[in-house]
Design a protein that fits this description.
single chain; 305 residues; alpha/beta; Rossmann fold; nine-stranded mixed sheet; disordered C terminus
C-alpha cells in the first residue's frame, strides 16, 4: 500500500529535489552574505509543499522541498532567521508534514492547508504586519506544481491569480520554479492555451534569470530562478544565465527546438540530507482568522489536529 506523499513519482524527483536545494542554496548564500547579523529575516513560501517526503522511490525516503529548505537554511543562514510558509490543499499531507518536520523545525514553520492563492495572500500580509518595508524584504517563493505553469479547475498548480502582484510588491524575493516540460510539450501539441518558456520569463518580469534542467525517468524539468538583483551563473549546481549560450540551449530544449538535451553536469549538493529522521510536532489554528488551519508550533497557540 502506498502512502500519500505526492512529491512526484518519477525518477526525476530525486534530481529535481537536488536542484531545489541548489537553487535555495544560491539565494540563501547571497542573502546571508549581504544581510547577516543585521536583523533581516529570510522569508520563504512553498506553494506546493506536499507531505515532506517521498517514500515510493527506491529503498530510502527522498526528502521533499520542506526538508530540503530546512537542510539548506540550517547550513547556510548563519546570520538570519528563516521563516517558511509551507502550503498544500490536502490536509492529510500537511498533517504528515508536521510529523516529518519534527518538533524544532515545526516550531519555526507555518503550515497552511489551503488554496495557495489564499496562502500567498496570508504570507504577504504576515510580512507586511512584521513591519518590514516590502522593497527590502528578502527570501524565496518556490512553485513546484509537478506540471507546467497553469492552474486547473480544482485550484491545483500555480498560485497564478496573485503571484505576479506579489512579486511586484516584494521585488527582492527570488522566484524559484520547477516546471515539467514534458507536460508543456503534451499541452502545446494538443493546442492548449499554455505559455511558452521564454514568454513565461517575460511575463514574470524578473530582471535576471538563471535556468537549469534535469531529464530522468521520461520527464524533463525546467528550473528557473528569477531575481531583480544582478547574479552570476552557478555552473557547479547546473544553473546558467538565461541569456548565456548554455541558458539558450536549455530554453531551446524546453521549447522543443532541440531534440537532444545537452548535459552540463549535475548539481553539487554536498551537505543535503538524504533521509531525514521523522518525529512528531503539534499543530495550531489559522492566525489570519480565515477558517483554514495555519499550523505553527508556538506552545499552546492552537489545538492539535
Amino acid at each position: 500500500m502506498s502512502r500519500q506523499s505526492d512529491q512526484g513519482q518519477s525518477l526525476a524527483t530525486i534530481d529535481k529535489e537536488r536542484r531545489v536545494g541548489a537553487a535555495l542554496a544560491v539565494s540563501m548564500s547571497i542573502a546571508n552574505q549581504r544581510f547577516r547579523d543585521r536583523g533581516y529575516v529570510f522569508w520563504h513560501f512553498d506553494a506546493n509543499a506536499g507531505s515532506g517526503v517521498n517514500d515510493e522511490i527506491g529503498e530510502e525516503p527522498v526528502p521533499g522541498s520542506p526538508l530540503v529548505f530546512w537542510e539548506a537554511a540550517d547550513r547556510i543562514l548563519t546570520g538570519m532567521e528563516a521563516v517558511p510558509f509551507f502550503c498544500d490543499m490536502n490536509l492529510a499531507r500537511m498533517r504528515r508534514l508536521k510529523t516529518v518536520l519534527g518538533v524544532e523545525r515545526a516550531a519555526r514553520s507555518f503550515l497552511f492547508p489551503s488554496d495557495n492563492n489564499q496562502a500567498l495572500s496570508v504570507f504577504a500580509r504576515t510580512i507586511l504586519d512584521s513591519g518590514e518595508r516590502p522593497e527590502f524584504v528578502v527570501g524565496t517563493a518556490l512553485v513546484d506544481p509537478n506540471g507546467w505553469y497553469y492552474r486547473n479547475r480544482k485550484g491545483e498548480g500555480v498560485p497564478s491569480r496573485i503571484l505576479l502582484a506579489f512579486l511586484d510588491k516584494f521585488p527582492r524575493i527570488d522566484l524559484i520554479l520547477n516546471l515539467n516540460v514534458s507536460t508543456y510539450w503534451k499541452q502545446a501539441k494538443l493546442k492548449h492555451d499554455v505559455i511558452s518558456p521564454r514568454n513565461l520569463l517575460t511575463y514574470l518580469r524578473k530582471e535576471y534569470w538563471l535556468v537549469g534542467k534535469v531529464t530522468r525517468g521520461g520527464n524533463t524539468y525546467l528550473q528557473l530562478i528569477g531575481r531583480n538583483m544582478k547574479t552570476d551563473p552557478h555552473k557547479k549546481v547546473g544553473l546558467y544565465l538565461a541569456n548565456s549560450w548554455e541558458g539558450q540551449q536549455i530554453l531551446d530544449v524546453a521549447e522543443g527546438k532541440r531534440q537532444q538535451p545537452l548535459e552540463f553536469g549535475m548539481p553539487d549538493v554536498r551537505g543535503l540530507s538524504q533521509a531525514p529522521g521523522l518525529s512528531r510536532g503539534a499543530v495550531g489554528r489559522d492566525a489570519a482568522g480565515q477558517g483554514a488551519l495555519l499550523m505553527r508550533q508556538e506552545g499552546d497557540r492552537g489545538s492539535p489536529c
